[in-house]
Amino acid sequence: MSAYPKHPLRGATTDQLAWMAGRWSSKKEGERLEEIWSPPDGDIMIGMFRWIRGDAVSLYEFLVLKPGPAGLELHIKHFAPDLVGWEEKDATIAFDLVQLGDREAVFAPRAEEHSGWAVYRIAADGWLEFEEVSERKAPESALFLRFAPARRPRSVRLDA
Question: Which CATH class is domain 14-149?
């Protein structure tokens, strides 16, 4: 039995995922994580993720939420610190939106080698959570991240 559906949810728009927009940050065992999502515009949202270990970035991700033939798609591209992509030049890790709640979105992987659903939600305390839910991995080995709403950086006046 699947933890979540596997078939794309039709009819959803990025406006229904606007709750993800913002700058989110976290600390995990002395490491710093940051995820930034743009507000929906043109039915697309873009995101950026970085994982910093010590004083060096260990990985970057570029994320895109966009409409596709079967519904909303999440595409992820990973990069090493020197900006060399992990996936082939013309490839991304692709997911389809399969379930959408008030403040939870579940994405199923398209490729069989990617074993888990990607689940984004806003927890009761207002934090953004990301969880990998897999039928093949032990629950304790699945990725679970929590991000606090980050303070906005002070604006810089360019005309001064």
Answer: mainly beta
